[in-house]
From TrEMBL:
Keywords: Glycosidase, Hydrolase. One of its GO terms (molecular function) is hydrolase activity. It comes from Enterococcus alishanensis. PROSITE patterns: GLYCOSYL_HYDROL_F1_2. Belongs to the glycosyl hydrolase 1 family. The lineage of its organism: Bacteria, Bacillati, Bacillota, Bacilli, Lactobacillales. This is Glycoside hydrolase family 1 protein. It comes from the Bacteria.
Length: 487
């Protein structure tokens, strides 16, 4: 190992989610998930994310009635369902030590309420994990990544109803029983904090089902149920899979004060504390005092049944994983210029460049996040999403994506600095190693991959895969365990 290399055994790889890659939305007994409801809307307004996810009982029923994939890119994905062997081979060629992927709940339990799993769905993931084992790629599996059964959403208003906890625990236990021999690393809920930003996608919540004035309270109730479910399945994974490691997963939304005016600093502090809330519960096993006070004041404190507090306290996570794409600023000035980020609209930081989608590129913010999270939680960290969406152009049959390599290089250097300063960062999975369907906009043209997929936003194309320049670049980073970054 040279000084420039990352720690031995560092888990380099990539991350995807079932609903954004698999396709095969209606085959082999799969049920419909909340992701199958998201339609593609051209002329996307990046400053109004809420509009992409606006749903009502009526709009969901209309989407279900449309049994085609024409307007629903997540139903198509990138056809990983049929091409997983080819894709895993490409990841192996890049030298991946790990791949983060999720299990579509509806492949195993089409409506979420069946008592026994759909064996065709189980077989698909068994085959994927066997192939990964053969290729020496360690799986990191997310149990819930924006793909709950839409049936649970319509019937129970998703996670607002406590009964969904049991359905999720049953699903998770099938995953542990059937895939535990292949999978050591588990994440419970992807970006659990996103429930406030897109409650339907994250927790199946349909606004028109809430009683007058109780919508926000319902969101906190659903979040509480997810916290409890996360703790319960952490317990089950630990009991069933020797040596298993379970992590929480957060959207790290680093916020800076726009100026050093004390009010800007106070507002920023509050934003950052709110962002910490979710890992606080999952790592420390209890709601933070300031959050309790705030929820009580606003009459939003969720109902907790007997035993909940003990469950949260006893079954905390082993590590913290998070996504990091961008940072933003905060200001007391209501007229401060704003820019979109990962499902947020933040105050624009004048010191940072942005991607074509307006997300502010901030490698130093990643280092600051790593230091802050490690200092606060004192458990190993994993970066399980990081990357930039960009428009890629094919020139002479190739894709020269220097911008992507620059983005990653700058972030990797900051990771190395953080490690050298003492942060226990054990793994990194880029989002995403292959072009896929965007969670936020349902575009394929917002490309993230080292591997190009020949598909457009309307589903035209051969879906053939092609290596971009960054493919070879990442291959070298992994081969040298990061030492090539210093060249
Ligand atoms: C993360 C999600 O928030 O951001 C991913 O976990 C998502 O599912 C990623 O794809 C990038 O966001 P987008 O909207 O560009 O796909």
């Amino acid at each position: 190992m040279t000084n420039n290399a990352f720690p031995e055994g560092f888990l380099w790889g990539g991350a995807v989610a079932a609903n954004q890659v698999e396709g095969g939305w209606n085959v082999d007994g799969k049920g419909m998930s909340v992701a199958d409801i998201a339609s593609y809307k051209p002329n996307i307004d990046n400053t109004n994310y809420a509009a992409h996810w606006e749903v009502s009982t009526e709009s969901i029923e209309a989407a279900i009635a449309d049994q085609t994939d024409k307007d629903y890119p997540k139903r198509r994905g990138i056809d990983f369902y049929h091409r997983y062997k080819e894709d895993l081979a490409l990841f192996a060629e890049m030298g991946f030590k790990t791949l983060r992927l999720s299990i579509a709940w509806t492949r195993l339990f089409p409506t979420g309420e069946e008592l026994e799993p759909n064996e065709a769905g189980v077989a698909f993931y068994e085959n994927v994990f066997k192939e990964m084992e053969r290729l020496n790629i360690e799986p990191i599996v997310t149990l819930s990544h924006y793909e709950m059964p839409v049936s649970l959403s319509l019937k129970f208003n998703g996670w607002v109803d406590r009964r969904v906890v049991d359905d999720f625990v049953r699903f998770s236990n099938v995953c542990f029983d059937r895939f535990g021999k292949y999978v050591k690393y588990w994440l419970t809920f992807n970006e659990i904090d996103s429930i406030h930003r897109h409650p339907f996608t994250t927790a199946g919540i349909i606004p028109d089902k809430s009683a007058e004035g109780r919508y926000i309270a319902d969101v906190y109730q659903a979040l509480h149920h997810q916290f409890v479910a996360s703790a319960l399945v952490t317990k089950d994974a630990h009991e069933k899979i020797p040596g298993s490691q379970v992590g929480c997963m957060l959207t790290k939304l680093m916020t800076y004060p726009l100026t050093c005016a004390p009010l800007d600093v106070e507002l920023t502090l509050k934003k950052n504390l709110e962002n910490d809330f979710y890992a606080d519960v999952q790592v420390f096993g209890e709601y933070p005092r300031m959050i309790i006070k705030d929820l009580e004041k606003r009459n939003l404190m969720p109902e907790m049944v007997e035993g909940d507090k003990e469950i949260l306290k006893e079954h905390t996570v082993d590590f913290v994983s998070f996504s990091y794409y961008m940072s933003m600023a905060e200001s007391a000035d209501p007229n401060a210029e704003r820019t979109p980020g990962n499902t947020v609209l933040g105050v624009k930081n004048p010191y940072l460049p942005s991607t074509e989608w307006g997300w502010q590129i901030d490698p130093k913010g990643l280092k600051i996040s790593l230091i802050e999270l490690y200092d606060r939680y004192n458990v190993p960290l994993m970066i399980v999403e990081n990357g930039m969406g960009a428009v890629d152009k094919i020139e002479d049959g190739k894709i020269h994506d220097d911008y992507r390599m620059e983005y990653f290089t700058a972030h990797f250097k900051q990771m190395k600095e953080a490690i050298d300063e003492g942060v226990d960062l054990v793994g990194y999975t880029s989002w995403a190693p292959i072009d896929l369907v965007s969670a936020g906009t349902s575009q394929v043209s917002k490309r993230y991959g080292f591997i190009y997929v020949d598909a457009d936003d309307e589903g035209n194309g051969t879906y053939d895969r092609m290596r971009k320049d960054s493919f070879y670049w990442y291959q070298k980073v992994i081969q040298t365990n990061g030492a090539s970054l210093a060249e």
